[in-house]
Amino acid sequence: MNTLTPADRAKYAASRAALSLVEPDMKLGLGTGSTANWFIRLLGERIRVDGIKLSAVATSDRTAALARSEGIEVIELDAAGWLDLTIDGADEVDPALNLIKGGGGAHLQEKIVATASDRMVVITDDSKLVDTLGAFPLPVEVIPLGWTASRAIIEEMLEQIDVDGREVTPRMNGSELYRTDEGNHILDLHLKRIGDPHRLSPLLNQVAGVVENGLFLGVADQIMVGYDSGQAHLL
Ligand code: 5RP
Fold first, then answer.
1. What is the ipTM of this complex?
2. DSSP class of residue 228?
3. Which of 87, 194, 202, 206 could, after both became Cys, cross-link 134 (CB 3.0–4.6 A)?
């Protein structure tokens, strides 16, 4: 553990504490990202050591691959029907437990899985706690057809919105446009401050080419915050 960065020690602490929320026979949602990866590794260890049985729905291909490699039974959401608990990371968390997610490009599946769960608990290091959302660029997943038109419509719409920045950039993977697991692209909205996320989110999703945006409003039930000291507590 001494070789971990302070951020990783905090992510590990949050993940370890969240493990106590898992009970045998639960159907879990597993998030995507470096914090979720810590949780998945610890969950695999608990399954191997304690021999508990449970199944899980993954929010991305890479999460599914890691979970399987850890010996976790991965099932489809439609086979699960409904989930007991989803554990996932976040890019920003505000005092009302609203989130920005999608830094890892998986927010579409993450939102579907989280909203199909009795409870969503976010695991995070304390650096993600903010007073106001928006310093982290807001990811918006768009279908490839006409993505430049979708960007133009979003840019025009942002003129009417209470934000401090209006730059919209396509996410890249090297010299190629980034592709999500669904084969879509992501536009990152550099808003700096989002004055009214509840107004912005439905407006974004009304744009024809938009699949889903990364605002999770009223979705998270609790936040497990980890610190590099190894402590963690639930908000
Ligand atoms: C992926 C996400 C992640 O949860 C978010 O980007 C946080 O990632 P990390 O735990 O690596 O900081 O939303 O789409």
1. 0.98
2. T
3. 194
Residues 6+ away with beta carbon under 8 Å from 25? 53, 54
Which protein residues are within 6 Å of ligand 1, measured from CB? 31-35, 88-91, 101-107, 110
Non-local (6+) Cβ contacts of 4 within 8 A are 12
Q: Outline where DSSP puts E strands in 120-220.
A: 120-125, 138-142, 167-170, 172-173, 176-177, 185-190, 210-213, 215-216
| pLDDT tens track for 13-45 | 999 999 999 999 999 999 999 999 999 999 999
Pocket test for ligand 1, best of 32, 38, 123 (most atoms within 8 A of CB): 32
Question: Is 105 marked within a binding site?
Answer: no
* pTM for this entry: 0.95
Residue 229 CB burial class (10 angstroms; 0-12, 13-18, ≥19): exposed
For the beta carbon of residue 49, count every other beta carbon within 10 angstroms: 8
Which token pair is 67?
A: 């979970």
Q: How does pLDDT run across 147-204, given as a tens digit for each residue? A: 999 999 999 999 999 999 999 999 999 999 999 999 999 999 999 999 999 999 999 9
Determine the atom of ligand 1 nearest the C-alpha atom of 214.
13
Q: Indicate which residue's Cα is closest to atom 7 of ligand 1.
A: 90
Would the annotation count 33 as a binding residue? Answer: yes
Report yes or no: 65 and 100 within 8 Å, Cβ to Cβ: no
